[in-house]
Amino acid sequence: MTMTEPHIDAPNEPTTPLYRLADVSKTYTQKKRVVKPLVGVDLEIARGDFVTIQGPTGGGKSTLLQLLGALDRPTSGRLTLGDTDLAAASNAALGSARAREIGFVFQGFNLIPTLTASENVDMGLEPLGLADAERRARVAEALAHVGLADRADHRPGELSGGQQQRVAIARAIAKRPRVLLADEPTGNLDESMRDEILDLLQALNDGGLTLIVVTHDSAVARRASRRLRLEKGTIRDITR
Ligand SMILES: Nc1ncnc2c1ncn2[C@@H]1O[C@H](COP(=O)(O)OP(=O)(O)OP(=O)(O)O)[C@@H](O)[C@H]1O
């Protein structure tokens, strides 16, 4: 399987959505103050889609991404990723979903500065228990896929911002996830590097990878096939 091939699903799965959210709410209580970042969200995300989530600051975007990323559970409602019920899953099952099925990309790249590009990508494979040869092959393949085969031994400080984000994308795709979740992936990049990263994300999506991107940047949203807006905990489809 090459990096761009989508995760192999059971034969009856391709027609069902990748994510299903039914009446999902999230409530935080801090010092008796109650915050409701998500209120009764109903949403389905199709396999292979490229979805952006926009909206005002504090509107609940990061909270939604955390739920989709199996980093947290809803306070109420149903949330499934394929056949996995993320709302009811144990901590171990959430950890397994994060390790195997979900790739993450962040605004600040989140690379380890003392490790080389290869070693950073390899970190993402640690929980999978692969044989050394398979691990090395996946790291090399992922770096080649993002156009950084010749930078494998460079540390983040020796790479441009765009190259660092490409290493972070290689780390995310090396595990061959079902979905890539990105939180402002171009927020720290200038315009030319932004376009470079968008081209790469678009190519991954063309290869079948589902993308869900939180962004304030309308240039990112223009690339998406589906645009959502999250405001005051409520989601709206603004695709035109
Ligand atoms: N762990 C937490 N505990 C308490 N309140 C939280 C927590 N996480 C988020 N919130 C609150 O939930 C609301 C939504 O926050 P969230 O980070 O999801 O918004 P956002 O749309 O991602 O904003 P931004 O664009 O600024 O990143 C905010 O009022 C925030 O203060």
Automatic annotation (TrEMBL):
Pfam families: ABC_tran. Residues 19-238 form the ABC transporter domain. Keywords: ATP-binding, Nucleotide-binding, Transport. GO terms for cellular component: membrane protein complex; plasma membrane. PANTHER family: ABC TRANSPORTER ABCH.1, IMPORT ATP-BINDING PROTEIN. SMART domains: AAA. The keyword Metal-binding does not apply. It comes from the Bacteria. This is ABC transporter ATP-binding protein. It comes from Labedella populi. GO terms for molecular function: ATP binding; ATP hydrolysis activity; transmembrane transporter activity.
